[in-house]
From TrEMBL:
It comes from the Archaea. It comes from Natrinema saccharevitans. This is Uncharacterized protein.
Amino acid sequence: MTPVANTDEKHRAAATCPRCGEIGIVKVWPDGSLQPLGQSDFCDCPSSTLRILETDIDERP
């Protein structure tokens, strides 16, 4: 996954699990890693790789 920003700031984004289709909000860290908001796991899938759907509205041109 490519980083969303080249700053030290984290961002919020909508993300989905490609296995089960679960959708939720995640923090996107500068290194591109994702952390589900308000929960420790995004879904019940083992080791799922989340895919970002949309980033914060503020980040759009």
